[in-house]
Amino acid sequence: MYEQTNTMMENKTSFQIPQLLDGDDFTSEDLADDMEGLRLSFTRIKIPGGGHLQFEIPSGNPDVPDYAPYLEGVILYSHNSNAYWPEGSEYDDNVPPFCQSFDGKQGYGEPGGVCAACAFNQFGSTANGSGKACKNMRQIYLLRSGEYLPLQLSLPPTSLRPFNDFMNLAFVARRRPSYSAIVEIGLKRAESGGYTYSVATFRKVRDLDGEDLAAVKSYSMNFKEQVKTLLVQRAENYKSEVEEFAGAAPLELADNGDHFSYPGVIDGERDELPL
Among 10, 31, 66, 153, whose CB has the most other CB atoms within 10 angstroms? Predict the structure, then answer.
């Protein structure tokens, strides 16, 4: 029984570095045609609502996602992000934000501008004065054992303090970077004002060292630079779209009784066109 338990613990904490995996017979050239024209994206994970204690992880079948009580891996990189939605629509995936910041510093849209100086980014700016109208988030890129691309976990405002406390204790206080240890991210229930919601929990599983740490460091440094470049590109693209939309001339239609009007903004990537 002891040997079985000990083996299970070893399997749980073992971590395979992508560069060190054996049995890969496919080169970059082999994958080039399949990747041509594709935009780099990551599997996105959200903190569930309603106090649920399972993460929903997209799988190869969009109708049958995977579920897990915790996520385990290495935090390659994390950064702030902000988004402002019309009040009441902040948790609706079908409603695009009025204003968005990819780094938590500069917003694009309405109102846009420097996030620190934005009135919607101040406590008390919600309709009931209980918090911020702008949703402050943290994007975490978590590389799981044996995988080449990380998960992108979006932390809502209610999970920012647990993450901040964990990072300070597990890494900053020990002068170690976030990629230097395997972490476990779980969930717990919390209540406030009669509402039940889920909050992320964090635990350091073990530190990496030796060749494993060197390999993860190299991977993390390269990945971090790629993500920073990607965020700049996304910000520029989003800025261009906002400016193009704001400067577009109104469409003039013939008064023939056959035209229609659609109240709202259509998000071409998520909304069906009104036919």
Answer: 153
* Residue 129 Ramachandran class (φ > 0 left, ψ -120 to 50 alpha, else beta): left
Alpha-carbon torsion 155, 161, 164, 166, what sign?
Answer: negative
Q: Is residue 269 part of a domain?
A: no
> How confident is the model over 122-144, as a mean pLDDT?
90
Report pLDDT for 25: 55
Q: What's the whole-model pTM score?
A: 0.76
Is residue 24 a part of any domain in this protein? no
258: left (phi over 0), alpha (psi -120 to 50) or beta: alpha
Give the count of domains, the chain.
1
Over residues 32-89, the pLDDT tens digits come to 555 455 556 789 999 998 999 999 999 888 889 999 999 999 999 999 999 998 777 6
- 188, 175 in Cβ contact below 8 A? no
Q: Which residues contact 83 (CB under 8 A, 6 or more apart)?
A: 90, 97, 99, 100, 101, 134, 135, 137
Of the candidates 174, 185, 171, which has an alpha carbon nearest to the alpha carbon of residue 142?
185
Judge whether 93 lies within some domain.
Answer: no
